[in-house]
Design brief:
six-stranded antiparallel β-sheet; binds FE2/S2 (inorganic) cluster; 27 helices; monooxygenase activity; alpha+beta; Elongation Factor Tu (Ef-tu), domain 3; Cyt_P450_sf; FMN; 4 domains; binds protoporphyrin IX containing FE; Cytochrome p450; globular
Length: 774
């Protein structure tokens, strides 16, 4: 391998003995057009997620990014990481192909997805209205009618290729309706849009390049013809006529070049992405039969199943960005001018973000955090249309053909390219004599309400049974929850928590402290809070062996960092629960650690026997009554390289650790807060207020039981979020005016009093209004 064009600093890194280049063997072997990546992109880069999350691929000439946090950070910053190369041809085009494209006056240019600021955001805002939930709901009857018509055609056949017979054409027709273009020429268009995918993200041979260029050229001209037709009468429905009308108001924002480029790119954006997503989803669900059967039994699970399918097997496997200034990604220096392949499908399977990421869990309550739609200011505008289509497909098929099965032995093929991914064919079979509609024709008229927008996490719980409820210290009960009838529970990582639904309106989060390998039960320990309004009181008084409880999760905001060389675990009181799971894991892996367990008196310290038994030599008990209080200043006097402090306990303890570690490296202290506040807002206590959005020129009313974040989303203002509990800082918004009632744990006291920022997921207005810089 030549190292001449390799941008990796050779002086800095040892030369790989096999490749002869400082890039690793894995990086040298990376081939996004090879069989392994085509068959399963996230699996093909598992090695990278584990060992080298940001690497340079000499064969592609791109830096490749594979972990969730890094991919999201790149998406989030569209200034340092410009989207301008998103539609650039990944394989250099031959001169002949260029000549062919020129013959067709091909001039595909900036649309939205590849537009930089300051042009992009004004255009996105002007064109957003047709994507608002309210507007999208008008398309639902059309989506449903089309879906039913296509299912009618094969429902009695007993065998079908779902891609050829439904999943390709319905999204195409929906896309054309949504865009407002005529339906004719569908067969030709189908050929054209495949050509566009190969042209942009594929590696066609020189001969193929010519055919592809022919089709792309024709596609371009077709788009121009349709645009001319629409310009003559732009009064119709659809996003393109709307855009043409908007051009009259904002000619500098909606340019001619934009309209022609979008006319072509819009069809692909709306069509292939959704068709592939639908085929991936059906394949995944039928491969996981019990999950399919659960959906057939409870269509209420479909909205979240759509998200889980998009997470697990999304249709956009990777996306691209151009680095505009010297920077770092995941700590790796990357020079200006470098190109990035951000493998969002790999991010979606990152165990550092998603618990048990390879399994299909349709109750996963953070499934919507997948990056299949991208993230940040370029996040897919059509996501809610796609979600609607996928829900309708799943609903119609689970209801009318619950006995659907994959044809055994089918080998799935994919159009070779880096980014757009879905099987070319999906053969399914069933016994038409067993079609439920033959015995129950009323089924044909049933419809389940489609959810437009992100699904809520309500209703995603699984019902577990209390197996044991035993005292674990004074006022602490240890609860063991068992899965019904041997269904395996999702696995979890140390630091994870679950959320229990306790009575009608109360849900509470508790850290898991059992054995992560045990897929049949979860264990938690709960301290009785004397002021409890239903959470811990309910657990102590109502949960008895045999009681059923609705449980959501597991989720983890408090993970062990694999790079830690020495772990200092600090637990205060019931904060021992996540810390114990972490210490167990580090001990099992033979890692270095010390465990500081603080409590008022030994009899209040939960699970103390187990802690002593398993961690005796590393355990430091700090018991106030016994005069052995923890002195955090002494503990953290000397910062040590590679040492991290993991702490959970009362805010007092965490603040003391924060202060005592001020001279440590910035990320040395990692804490889990007790989340005592329920997520639900009590309308009897809260008041409504207005939020004015300075950039968008909108005013949004926030109801007493609504978060600012939810109100913004209802108005289609995209604000990224992660934890939605005031813990992570993702949903921050600039505050220009008004006093904020801060309820997060992200901002420091000084930042709060400055009053210039707020976390929209939890903080509110003190008065009647706020003005935000959105
Ligand atoms: C942008 C994926 C369906 C319209 C994007 C991006 C991705 C994506 C990855 C780039 C995001 C970024 O750079 O952060 C998908 C997937 C879909 C889907 C997986 C189906 C499952 C649709 C549909 C439409 C659409 C149905 C239109 C009706 C757009 C537009 C953008 C976009 C206009 C550009 C937004 C901007 O840059 O501001 N999509 N998409 N997409 N998508 Fe989608
Ligand atoms: Fe995490 Fe708001 S989303 S702080």
């Amino acid at each position: 391998m030549s190292t001449e064009s390799c941008p990796v600093d050779h002086a800095d890194r040892p030369t790989d003995p096999v490749s002869g280049c400082p890039v690793s063997v894995g990086a040298a072997a990376f081939d996004p057009f090879g069989d392994a990546y085509q068959a399963d992109p996230p699996e093909a880069v598992r090695w990278s997620r584990d060992e080298e999350p940001v690497f340079y691929s000499p064969s592609l000439g791109y830096w490749v990014v594979t972990r969730y946090d890094d991919v999201k950070a790149v998406f989030r910053d569209n200034i340092t990481f410009s989207p301008s190369i998103a539609l650039e041809k990944i394989t250099p085009v031959s001169d002949e192909a260029i000549a062919t494209l020129e013959r067709y006056d091909y001039a595909m240019n900036r649309t939205l997805v590849n537009e930089d600021e300051p042009e992009h955001m004004p255009r996105r805002r002007v064109l957003m209205d047709p994507f608002t939930p309210d507007r999208l709901s008008h398309h639902e009857p059309m989506v449903r009618r089309l879906t039913r018509e296509y299912v009618d055609r094969f429902v009695d056949a007993g065998k079908a290729d779902l891609v050829d017979e439904m999943l390709w054409e319905v999204p195409l027709t929906v896309a054309l309706h949504f865009l407002g273009v005529p339906e004719e020429d569908m067969a030709t268009l189908r050929k054209y849009s495949i050509a566009h995918t190969v042209n942009t993200w594929g590696r066609p041979s020189p001969e193929e390049q010519l055919t592809v260029a022919e089709n792309v050229g024709k596609f371009w001209q077709y788009a121009g013809t349709v645009l001319d037709k629409l310009r003559r009468d732009p009064s119709g429905d659809g996003w393109m006529p709307y855009s043409i009308r908007k051009q009259r108001e904002f000619p500098d924002v909606i340019t001619d070049s934009y309209l022609h480029s979008m006319m072509m790119a819009g069809i692909v954006a709306a069509h292939e992405t959704t068709a592939n997503a639908a085929a991936n989803a059906l394949k995944l669900l039928l491969e996981n039969r019990t999950v399919w059967e659960e959906l057939c039994a409870d269509p209420g699970l479909i909205p979240n199943a759509v998200e889980e399918c998009l997470r697990h097997s999304g249709s956009v496997a990777a996306w691209r960005r151009l680095v505009t200034s010297d920077t770092t990604v995941g700590g790796v220096p990357i020079p200006a001018g470098a190109k990035l392949l951000i493998v969002n499908s790999s991010a979606n399977r990152d165990e550092r973000h998603f618990e048990d990421p390879d399994s299909v869990d349709i109750r996963r309550d953070n499934a919507t955090e997948h990056l299949t739609f991208g993230y940040g200011s370029h996040q897919c505008m059509g996501k809610n249309l796609a979600r609607m289509e996928l829900q309708v497909f799943l609903e119609e098929l689970t209801r009318r053909l619950p006995h659907l099965d994959l044809v055994p032995g089918e080998r799935f093929t994919y159009v070779p390219n880096t980014s757009f991914r879905g099987p070319e064919h999906l053969w399914v079979q069933w016994d038409p004599a067993a079609n439920p509609e033959r015995t129950d024709p009323a089924l044909l008229h049933t419809r389940h309400p489609v959810r437009i927008g992100e699904p809520t996490t309500r209703g995603l719980s699984r019902t577990l049974t209390v197996e044991r409820a035993e005292p674990a210290a004074r006022d602490v009960v240890e609860i063991t929850l068992a899965a019904p009838a041997g269904t395996p529970l999702p696995s979890w990582s140390p630091g994870a928590h679950i959320e229990l639904q306790l009575g009608d309106d109360v849900s509470r989060q508790y850290s898991l402290c059992g054995d992560p390998e045990d897929r049949s039960r979860y264990r938690i320990a709960v301290l009785r809070d004397p002021d409890s309004r239903g959470g811990s009181r309910y657990v102590h008084d109502e949960l008895r062996p045999g009681t059923s409880v609705a449980v959501r999760g597991p989720r983890n905001h408090f993970r062990l960092d694999a790079a830690t060389r020495h772990h200092v675990f600090v637990a205060g009181g019931i904060g021992i629960t996540p810390i114990l799971a972490m210490a167990d894991a580090v001990r099992a892996a033979g890692g270095s650690y010390e465990l500081h367990y603080c409590g008022r008196s030994a009899d209040t310290m939960a699970l103390l026997d187990r802690v002593r038994r398993d961690h005796g030599p590393r355990l430091h008990e700090h018991v106030s009554d016994a005069g052995t209080r923890l002195d955090v200043t002494t503990l953290l006097a000397e910062p040590a390289d590679g040492t991290r402090i993991y702490a959970c306990g009362p805010q007092r303890l965490l603040s003391a650790l924060d202060a005592a570690s001020a001279h440590w490296p910035e990320d040395a202290l990692s804490v889990e807060h007790f989340t005592t506040a329920g997520r639900e807002l009590d309308p009897a206590v809260e008041h409504a207020f207005d939020v004015s959005l300075a950039d968008s020129g909108l005013t949004v009313r926030v109801a007493p039981d609504q978060t600012v974040l939810a109100a913004l989303r209802a108005a289609n203002i995209d604000v990224p979020s992660d934890c939605e509990e005031g813990l992570c800082g993702t949903c921050e918004a600039p505050v220009l005016d008004g006093e904020v009632d801060h309820r997060d744990v992200v901002l420091t006291r000084a930042e709060r009093s400055a009053g210039t920022r707020m976390m929209t997921c939890c903080s509110r207005a003190c008065g009647a209004s706020l003005t935000l810089g959105l």
